[in-house]
Each structure stands twice: as structure tokens, then as C-alpha cells.
């Protein structure tokens, strides 16, 4: 209540008689604008923040107080002064001038008097106006006073209300503070509750984890218990097994000793068997000749056949009755031949190989071996050497390889490590072709000597592939066959007019026995042996005949124990040199067919085979060497 401004009593007209009663003050009051009056009133009614209003004079009032009350304007006074200063000095004797000057001065004063008169009128008018304004201001003041009183009453009421509100506000504030405190408390409680809840959750999770672990531990314990039981059993079994193991070890040691003894026996037996085989072969001769008669094919069923009588396992008789009596050869032509064996048209590939296999065995025993098929075109040489499709139809070459790989296992058991390498070549028109090289640009191949003794030879630039299984070998053989066929397609009937040679090189080493050997197995499918008269291709036939006749010459020279054997006269004899006359075993298969039209060629083949059969080479020597350091 102390802040409520009191009504300034000093502002009333009655308490300030000197101000409004004076005419000039009335003029000032009248000259006040409405805004000034309002300000004045506000200054009186404004709360007393800056001290009592009586001490702050209204700015307008100050300005109004400066209204000039003098009768002569200052400018005019200056003018007069100026005129007085600039007037020329009139000598005292010049009365006329002095009179004129006085006249002039009178004129000026008169003018000024008139001006002042006008001014007086003006000021009088202004005074009237100010008087009126003062009157209206007094009226307004009364109204304002009334308003002020009303406002003061309102103010008092409002102040009372304000006080009430203040009390309410205090109560509210108090309540608010109380509420704030409670809210804070609640927040603290909530936060601690949250913490507790989180802790509870964590505890719950820990509890769940522990429960899980407990369960798994329980299971593990159970499993461990089972394991422990099992371990106990195993331990008992282990003890038993240890006893058994000791016994077994003793038995194994005994068996090992026995096995070693057996192996030694086996090795010596194998050696004996090998020596026996060799003796038998020596007895049979190192060049052995078999004759195979090929059956007519279904397509050849209508072809007339000559008579062929198998006298015994080693002898045949061929007979042709010449019906054309005009011919010089009229009558019966009968010839008997004996070889190491005869394969009739009914003999299977297996039957043939059964006779050939000792030769392959010889190669595995360390001897050089050559097996070749001789005969006219279409007599069954390729069928005998390579065979047809399917294992039953396999010829000597794939069967020899199967046998090598089967024996390899037995040899391994006896401590032998074998390395097998294969190469395939073709001699056509006295030129050697590598059948494992499919590129068109063939390099030249020469037959060269391995050592100065000239007992062993090799073909230069020939591709040699190591073979690890019979499957590997079949793949190589098919590759070589295809190469040969491709060449045959380019050059019609080339396959019949070329000699095909499959060379197998066996290298064996026995670390235990400190022994090693290398042997060569040459498997040859010769070109057709028909004479030049029956063929159109003279050039090819010349080469074929030359190589075959050189073969025959070599065999004849060997037969007659000639000092010089013409091996180098043809590529074929040169290549087969180690297998024909040297330290080797040779098997020749003479293939014939029974067709009437082929009787002459068949006779030629049989005669050539007989020559070969009568040929005796020097006793074959095994290529075995003792190894000092492996
Ligand atoms: N013992 C046999 N049993 C069944 N068929 C055979 C027999 N011998 C050969 N043949 C078949 O006779 C045909 C000619 O045989 P092959 O091609 O082996 O004769 P070749 O003497 O090699 O001829 P070339 O000199 O032209 O190579 C082939 O179709 C072959 O399958």
C-alpha cells in the first residue's frame, strides 16, 4: 500500500495561487497543447517511483514561461542602435542638418511607435486567446480531477485486489514450491525405481543365465558321469587292449620275421621261376614265330577259300587246287609249315596273349623284347597287335600293358620300384613320325646309339610319356591311333603302308637288393607285305618292300651267322636291331587269311616266317646291374 502514489495536493489551484491567478500564467495555461496537458496530468497521476511530482517541472511550462513580454523586438533595437552608430557626425553649427536629423529620428520613432501599437493589439488578442485556453484548461482539469478520483478509487480497489492476488500468489507460490519439492522427490523416487528396475532386470538376466548354466552344467555333469563310466569301461578295455597290443606286437614281430623270410623265399622263388622261364624260352629259341589265321568277316562270307589244315599245335598245311588247266600252275599246290604255335581262326585275343605273355614277363624280368606282326594287308596284324573295341577285343599291346601294371604290384611287394615310359612312332616311306606329337610341323627323328657298344638305340626328338596306369596307356594308344588315322586320311591307305611301333621302356630299381635294370618292349605292327606286282603305289611299295626285304636279309644274315648284319639299311631293321640280333627276345606273329585270291601272298608270308623261325640269335642277356649307390 505504501507504493500507491498519493494525490499531489500541491497541484491544486487553491494551493498554488501564484501560478494560475497571474495573467501571464493564464496565457501559458491557455497556450498548452492537449498533449502537454495530458502529460502534466500523467505526471501527477503516475506512481511515485522517481519521487514527488512537484519537484519535476513540466517542460512545456518552462517553454511557455519564455514567451516575450517586452514591447520592442530585439532586432529593431539593434537596427536603431546601428542607425545611431552609422549616422554621420553633424557639426553643431549645421542646424538645418540637425533639424533634418531630428526630423528623421522623429520619423523613425514614430514608425516604431506604430509598430509597438500593432504589437500591443496582437499581444492583447493573444492574451484573450490564452485566457480562453486557461478557462477551458480549468474545465478540463476539473473533469480530469474527477476522472483522477475515479481512477484513484479504481486503483484502490485494484490495489486491494492486487493484494489479495498477491496473497493468493504467495499461497500459490508456496503450494508450487511444495509441489516442485514433491515433484523432485517423485523424480528421485522414479529414478531410483528405474535403477532398481534395471538392477532387477539384470538380476533376472543373471538369474536366467545362471539357471541356463546350471542346467547345462547339470547336463555336462551327467554327460561327464556317463563319460566317466564309459572311461572306466574304456580304461578296462584299454588295459585289455594294451595286453592284446603287446601280444599283437610280439605276433607282428614274429610275423615280420616270418614275412621277411617268406619274402626272401618268394624273391628266390621268383628268381628261380624267372630263370626257369628264361631257360624254357632259351630252349624254345629267342626268335619265336606264331602263325595266326584270321577268320573271314561276315562281309567276306562269299569269298572262296583255299584249304588250310591244322596238322598239330605247331604245324599247318595250306593247299590250293588250281582248276584252270591252261595255267602253268595247274593241279594241286600243297605246302606245310611249322612254327612255335598256330592260332586258328577260332583263337581269341586272350588265347594269343596267353602265348605272348611270357615275352612280356621277360621284359619285366629285364630283357629287351620285340613282338611284331607280319602279313599282307588285311590279314589281321592291327587286330592282333591293337585289337578292337571292348576289353575282350583288346590286342597284345593293351594286354601287355595291363599285365605290366598287374605285375608291378607283385614286384613292388618284393621291393621293386618301376617307371614305365611309352612312345609311339610310325615309319612311312623311310621317314619316322612321332605319333604322340599331333602338331603338323614334325621335327626330324633319327635312330641313334645309346652307347658306343651299339647294343642299344634310341630315336631322337621322340616324345616319351610316363605312364602311371593302364588307363593312361590306353589314352596314349588311342591318341597315337587317331594321329595315325589322321595321317591315313590325308594319305589314303597310309596305315597299311607304314610300320607302327609302340615302345615301352621299363626302368626298375630295388633299393633293398641294390639292383636295377631297364628293358625295352617293342610292339610292332608292320606294313602290308604284299609284293609290288599286286599294288598300284610303286613308290610306297618300294619302301615297304625294301624295309621288309632288309628285315629278311637281316634275319638271313643272322641265320647264317654272318659277321656283318645289315641292320642300318632300313629304318625298320635299324630300329629293331637290339630286338633282332642282339641281347633280346623276339616274337613274330605271321598273320594270314584263307582267301583263295590271297594264296600266293599267304605262301610268301609263311615262307618268310619260316626263315625267321629258323633264325637263332645269341642267348639273350638280362640287363641287370648291381647298384652301389642308389
Ligand atoms: N582274328 C580276327 N577275328 C576277327 N576279326 C579279325 C581278326 N583279324 C582281323 N580281323 C578283322 O579283319 C579286318 C582287317 O584286319 P586288320 O586291319 O587288323 O588287318 P591288317 O593286316 O592290320 O591290315 P593293314 O595292313 O591294312 O593294317 C579288320 O576289320 C579286323 O577287325
Automatic annotation (TrEMBL):
User: Sorted alphabetically, which SUPFAM superfamilies does this protein's record hold?
Assistant: P-loop containing nucleoside triphosphate hydrolases
Q: Where in the cell is it found?
A: Cytoplasm, Cytoskeleton
Query: Pfam families, from UniProt?
Result: Kinesin (PF00225)
Q: One GO biological process from the UniProt record?
A: microtubule-based movement
What range(s) does the Kinesin motor domain occupy? 286-615
Gene Ontology terms for molecular function:
ATP binding; microtubule binding; microtubule motor activity
In Swiss-Prot or TrEMBL terms, this protein is called: Kinesin motor domain-containing protein
Q: Which organism is it from?
A: Diatraea saccharalis (sugarcane borer)
Amino acid at each position: 500500500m505504501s507504493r500507491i502514489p498519493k494525490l499531489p495536493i500541491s497541484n491544486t489551484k487553491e494551493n498554488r495561487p501564484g501560478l494560475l491567478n497571474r495573467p501571464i500564467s493564464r496565457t501559458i495555461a491557455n497556450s498548452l497543447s492537449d498533449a502537454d496537458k495530458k502529460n502534466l496530468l500523467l505526471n501527477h497521476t503516475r506512481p511515485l517511483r522517481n519521487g514527488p511530482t512537484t519537484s519535476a517541472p513540466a517542460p512545456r511550462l518552462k517553454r511557455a514561461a519564455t514567451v516575450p513580454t517586452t514591447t520592442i523586438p530585439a532586432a529593431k533595437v539593434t537596427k536603431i542602435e546601428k542607425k545611431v552608430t552609422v549616422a554621420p557626425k553633424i557639426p553643431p553649427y549645421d542646424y538645418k542638418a540637425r533639424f533634418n536629423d531630428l526630423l528623421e529620428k522623429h520619423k523613425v520613432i514614430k514608425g516604431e511607435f506604430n509598430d509597438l501599437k500593432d504589437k500591443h493589439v496582437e499581444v492583447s488578442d493573444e492574451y484573450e486567446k490564452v485566457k480562453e485556453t486557461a478557462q477551458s484548461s480549468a474545465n478540463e482539469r476539473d473533469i480530469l480531477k474527477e476522472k483522477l478520483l475515479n481512477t484513484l478509487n479504481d486503483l484502490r480497489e485494484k490495489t486491494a485486489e492486487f493484494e489479495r492476488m498477491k496473497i493468493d500468489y504467495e499461497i500459490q507460490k508456496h503450494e508450487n514450491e511444495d509441489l516442485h519439492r514433491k515433484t523432485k522427490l517423485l523424480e528421485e523416487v522414479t529414478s531410483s525405481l528405474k535403477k532398481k528396475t534395471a538392477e532387477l532386470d539384470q538380476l533376472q538376466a543373471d538369474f536366467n543365465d545362471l539357471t541356463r548354466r546350471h542346467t547345462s552344467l547339470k547336463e555336462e555333469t551327467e554327460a561327464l558321469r556317463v563319460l566317466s563310466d564309459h572311461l572306466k569301461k574304456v580304461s578296462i578295455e584299454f588295459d585289455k587292449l594294451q595286453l592284446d597290443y603287446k601280444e599283437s606286437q610280439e605276433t607282428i614281430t614274429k610275423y615280420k620275421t616270418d614275412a621277411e623270410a617268406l619274402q626272401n623265399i618268394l624273391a628266390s622263388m621268383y628268381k628261380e621261376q624267372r630263370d626257369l622261364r628264361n631257360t624254357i624260352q632259351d630252349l624254345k629259341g629267342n626268335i619265336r614265330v606264331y602263325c595266326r589265321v584270321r577268320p573271314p568277316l561276315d562281309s567276306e562270307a562269299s569269298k572262296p577259300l583255299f584249304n588250310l589244315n591244322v596238322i598239330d599245335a605247331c604245324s599247318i598245311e595250306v593247299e590250293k587246287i588250281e582248276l584252270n588247266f591252261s595255267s602253268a600252275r595247274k593241279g594241286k599246290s600243297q605246302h606245310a609249315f611249322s612254327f612255335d604255335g598256330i592260332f586258328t581262326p577260332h583263337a581269341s585275343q586272350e588265347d594269343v596273349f596267353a602265348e605272348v605273355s611270357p615275352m612280356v614277363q621277360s621284359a619285366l624280368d629285364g630283357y629287351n623284347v620285340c613282338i611284331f606282326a607280319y602279313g599282307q594287308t588285311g590279314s589281321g596284324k592291327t587286330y592282333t597287335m591293337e585289337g578292337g573295341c571292348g576289353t575282350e577285343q583288346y590286342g597284345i599291346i593293351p594286354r601287355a600293358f595291363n599285365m605290366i601294371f598287374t605285375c608291378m604290384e607283385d614286384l613292388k611287394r618284393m621291393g621293386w620300384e618301376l617307371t614305365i615310359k611309352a612312345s609311339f612312332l610310325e615309319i612311312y616311306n623311310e621317314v619316322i613320325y612321332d605319333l604322340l606329337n599331333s602338331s603338323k610341323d614334325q621335327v626330324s627323328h633319327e635312330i641313334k646309339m645309346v652307347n658306343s657298344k651299339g647294343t642299344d638305340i634310341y630315336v631322337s626328338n621322340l616324345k616319351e610319356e610316363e605312364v602311371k596306369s593302364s588307363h593312361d596307356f590306353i589314352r596314349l594308344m588311342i591318341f597315337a591311333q587317331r594321329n595315325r588315322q589322321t595321317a591315313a586320311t590325308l594319305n589314303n591307305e597310309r596305315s597299311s603302308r607304314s610300320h607302327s611301333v609302340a615302345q615301352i621302356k621299363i626302368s626298375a630299381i630295388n633299393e633293398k637288393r641294390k639292383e636295377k635294370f631297364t628293358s625295352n618292349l617293342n610292339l610292332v605292327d608292320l606294313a602290308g607285305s604284299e609284293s609290288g606286282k599286286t599294288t598300284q603305289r610303286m613308290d610306297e611299295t618300294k619302301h615297304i618292300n625294301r624295309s621288309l626285304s632288309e628285315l629278311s636279309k637281316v634275319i638271313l644274315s643272322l641265320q647264317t651267322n654272318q659277321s656283318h648284319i645289315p641292320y642300318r639299311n632300313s629304318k625298320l631293321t635299324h630300329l629293331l636291331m637290339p630286338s633282332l640280333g642282339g641281347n633280346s627276345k623276339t616274337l613274330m606273329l605271321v598273320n594270314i587269311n584263307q582267301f583263295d585270291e590271297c594264296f600266293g601272298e599267304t605262301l610268301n608270308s609263311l615262307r618268310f616266317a619260316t626263315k625267321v623261325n629258323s633264325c637263332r640269335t645269341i642267348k639273350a642277356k638280362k640287363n641287370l646291374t648291381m647298384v652301389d649307390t642308389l
